[in-house]
Amino acid sequence: MRRIGRRFQRARRRRRLPPGVGPRNRTLMFGLANPDRFMRFTRPVTPVAWVVAGVLLVVGTWLSFTAPGDYQQGDTVRIMFVHVPAASLGLMIYGALGVSSFFALVFRHPLADAAARAAALPGAAYTALALVTGSLWGQPMWGTWWVWDARLTSVLVLFLFYLGYIALRSAIDDEAKAARAAAVLGLVGLINLPIVKFSVDWWNTLHQPASLLRAGGTSLDPVFLWPLLTMMAAFGALFLAIWLSAIRTEIVRRRVMSLRARAAQNA
Q1: What is the largest CA-CA distance in the chain?
Q2: Three-state secondary structure string covering 124-140
Q3: Which residues, 6+ apart, have CB-to-CB distance to 31 below 8 Å?
Q4: 23 partner at 20 to 30 Å CA-CA among 41, 122, 141, 238?
């Protein structure tokens, strides 16, 4: 046991682990950080995520189209079943990208870097979908496609952070340097998340306040609440399926690149 303790102390000094992280905590925190273990764990999980996402999308779409129209918005209210899940997932995905960037930058876990890279494109797609559906919803309700409202502007900034992350990784040929630069940008972008979330509370905005998660409970009628929750679960399951598949593809790509580099050196 003493020998194991001394080995871990040396590993802590080399990897600069936080003082409170012991062998058991480190196993719990980074158990799936090993690419081989991650590949084994996600092999059966990924197809299940795709099936669950497909089923939830079908059920959510059916509930969305069979729900009655709103007494004020009419059938336009159905845009909510796409807009709200897309906007919520856009925020949550960037949170996952930021956390993954932190672990990639501080602990230098290649799997965390792969997770951050895999989250960028679907996160940008969800955020773009939120912007487009928001404009489609806003035109009949507000009489305009776009206003420089605090919520709309902060979501647009979020979308630009996604594009900046993707562009920065593509602009630098050295993958290690690209990963570090993109991780820094990913961490900086986290500052925008509370601005997006609380913009309707901090400023007098045209965008309506939260109606799903708020103090005192939701203000949505059950005929709208259940289709919305189903679509949010569907969008979440779809992202999980895409994310896991993209991470697995990235691991395989890096292994192939490593094998090619070794073959070139041996040749």
Answers
A1: 73
A2: HHHHHHHHHHHHHHHHH
A3: 37
A4: 41
Give the model confidence (pLDDT) of 244-265 as tens digits.
Answer: 999 999 999 888 888 877 887 8
- Judged against a pLDDT cut of 50, whether residue 1 lies above it is answered with no
Q: How far is it, in rounded angstroms, from Cα 169 to Cα 105?
A: 14
- HSE, side-chain direction, 13 A CA sphere, residue 137: 19
Distance CA 25, CA 31 (A): 10
**Cα–Cα distance between 25 and 198 in angstroms, integer?**
34
For the entire predicted model, the pTM comes to: 0.81
How far CA 189 is from CA of 97, 227, 247, 252, 258, in Å, comes to 10, 31, 21, 28, 31
If we measure between CA atoms, which residue out of 157, 161, 153 comes closest to residue 119? 161
DSSP 3-state assignment of 74? strand
Phi first, then psi: give them for residue 109, nearest 5 degrees: -85, 120
The per-residue pLDDT of the chain, averaged, comes to: 82
Given a cut of 80, whether residue 212 has pLDDT beyond it is no
Give the Cα separation of 267 and 265 in Å (integer).
5
Higher pLDDT, 105 or 149: 105
Structural domains of the chain ordered from first start: 39-257 (1.20.120)
